[in-house]
Specification:
The protein has 514 residues and is an alpha/beta fold. It has a domain of 359 residues: Metal-dependent hydrolases (TIM Barrel), CATH 3.20.20. Helices cover 31% and strands 21% of the residues. Helix 3 packs parallel to helix 4, helix 4 packs across helix 7 and helix 7 packs parallel to helix 8. The chain is globular. The termini are far apart. The structure holds N-(aminocarbonyl)-beta-alanine and zinc ion (3 copies). The site of one zinc ion has 4 residues, from helix 10.
Length: 514
């Protein structure tokens, strides 16, 4: 099933680890639940059902009263990212270790080249940072942060030779990563040609720049200025524009980190009328906290919540976003884990626009969604699986290797205890960062065991990850979920009539218009 060379696991980690039976649990996939035992050998699910015949010496986990679900896929992380003068606290080891502790067994990180940098060079840098450190499997999206014919060539190589099937374009971060609409459209057309998936960060970077100048001139320098410079409308406009550009390019589209009701409403409208699909991702931050924190008197506290697009002051946002996830107006939840410690956030002490953007979430995403979405009755466990793993696996073409519990799928499994209670706090989280935006949140429902490629890496509360055990996942282009329903060859440009007959003597033939 795996599509990358299997790394050699040291002998002392093999033997009894190779066979595992998860017994008496309730298996949850996105399309249903069943009472089934799960038997794993060499990292792959070999049998599922009751009364299985199992070789002696197999380790048995009793999952009575527990749910057995596909390990989470976090479609959006930034480990070891240098951004806005800071470097993220979580590297690929600490970040994936924290992911596993929270029930996530695959992460998708973003290669973000500097303006003018070769995409291939940036990709190689990311691989060399990640490969020796990851505690779970990972895949990569690549940012298209500038445009030239050489970028197009490198996108081709990334797709055809390096297993990249998604590219992120920025409509914000003017003068850094932002593309203009022309470049955005050409990048989307390139993705379509390659049968890759374009992703966008949807915010209007020009409006943000102008609003920032005005706020700073008026003396608003604190973190509250961040939200004021980029309110909901600034996000919703970009969502609509991105959808229109994708539609004109005849391309599918994936909008990352959707943070507001207005943005989701814009997406909802586009999804009803566009043929190539448009997908929306939201974040654990959006449902687990809110924009009121920007007004906190403590700079550290307020700055810790700065990410883009920002958390919203409208208190009805978290519930509306949860409902959108439940109703399939949004398809996935990620973390956008991009953690900066206090020292780095201080870079923006006197100017909110210099606060490095990003929050935590890779560790708590699953529990926060369970608490806010499932315990509240807004979604059932199947939908929980859909938005935390299955939909990501389908969209990024990892299905059914990942995101599904079935014979022949990878043994990436979380044994979920729906009664396990804990309070989230930076004092005992596994992430490297010194702040947790979910501080004090009481959650009922957490992983008891987490199995990564057949190995129990979170063992009844004890973290036993192996640095470098994870592998790079090649994501093949032409995902059947995205491109399966044939992409229409028609586009508004193709539809334009080419055969209008006009009189050559300059006399208008008004009758033709009727
Ligand atoms: O604030 C954020 N989202 N930081 C990470 C970079 C990005 O735009 O995803
Ligand atoms: Zn972004
Ligand atoms: Zn504080
Ligand atoms: Zn991000």
């Amino acid at each position: 099933m795996t599509n990358a060379p299997v790394k050699k696991v040291p002998i002392h980690l093999q033997s009894s680890q190779n066979r595992l039976l998860i017994k008496n649990g309730r298996v949850v996939n996105d399309d249903g639940m069943e009472e089934a035992d799960v038997y794993i050998e060499d990292g792959i699910i070999k049998q599922m059902g009751r009364n299985l015949i199992i070789p002696g010496g197999t380790r048995v986990i009793d999952a009575t009263g527990k749910l057995v679900m596909p390990g989470g896929i976090d479609p959006h992380t930034h480990f070891e990212l240098e951004m806005m003068g800071g470097k993220t606290a979580d590297d690929f080891y600490k970040g994936t270790r924290a992911a596993v502790a929270g029930g996530t067994t695959t992460v998708m990180d973003f290669v973000l080249p500097q303006k003018g940098q070769s995409l291939l060079e940036a990709y190689s840098n990311w691989r060399s940072r990640a490969d020796s450190k990851v505690c779970c499997d990972y895949a990569l999206h690549v940012g298209v942060t500038w445009w030239s014919p050489s970028v197009k060539k490198e996108m081709e190589q990334l797709v055809n030779e390096h297993g990249v099937n998604s590219f992120k374009m920025f409509m914000a971060y003017k003068d850094a990563w932002m593309l203009d609409d022309y470049q955005l459209m050409v990048a989307m057309e390139t993705c379509l040609e390659l049968r890759a998936l374009p992703q966008v960060h949807a915010e209007n970077g020009s409006i943000i720049s102008r609003n920032t100048e005005k706020l700073l001139a008026a003396g608003v320098t604190g973190p509250e200025g961040h939200q004021l410079s980029r309110d909901e409308e600034v996000e919703a406009e970009a969502v609509t524009r991105a959808c229109v550009i994708a539609n004109q390019a005849n391309s599918p589209l994936y909008i990352v980190h959707m943070m507001s009701k207005s943005a989701v409403q814009a997406l909802r409208i586009a999804r009803t009328k566009q043929r190539p699909p448009v997908y929306g991702e939201t974040l654990a931050a959006t449902i687990g906290t809110d924009g009121s924190h920007y007004k906190n008197a403590c700079f550290r506290h307020a700055a810790a919540h700065v990410l883009s697009p920002p958390l919203r002051p409208d208190p009805s946002t978290p519930e509306a976003i949860l409902q959108a996830l439940a109703d399939d107006d949004l398809q996935l939840i990620g973390s956008d884990n991009c953690t900066f410690s206090e020292k780095e956030k201080e870079l923006g002490k006197n100017n909110f626009s210099k606060i490095p953007n990003g929050v935590n979430g890779v560790e708590d995403r699953m529990s926060v969604l369970w608490q806010k979405g499932v315990n509240s009755g807004i979604m059932d466990p199947c939908r929980f699986v859909a938005v935390t793993s299955a939909n990501a696996a389908r969209i990024f073409n990892l299905w059914p290797q990942k995101g599904r519990l079935a014979v022949n799928s990878d043994a990436d499994i979380v044994v979920w205890d729906p009664r396990l209670e804990r309070t989230i706090t930076a004092a005992n989280h596994k992430q490297a960062v010194d702040f947790n935006i979910f501080e004090g949140l009481r959650v009922v429902g957490s992983p008891q065991y987490v199995v990564v490629n057949g190995r129990v890496c979170f063992d009844d509360g004890e973290l036993r990850v192996v640095e470098g055990l994870g592998k790079y996942l090649k994501t093949e282009a032409n995902s059947p979920f995205v491109y399966g329903g044939e992409v229409p060859s028609r586009s508004p440009v193709n539809e334009a009539p080419h055969d209008i007959e006009r009189s050559t003597n300059g006399t208008p033939t008004h009758g033709d218009l009727l």
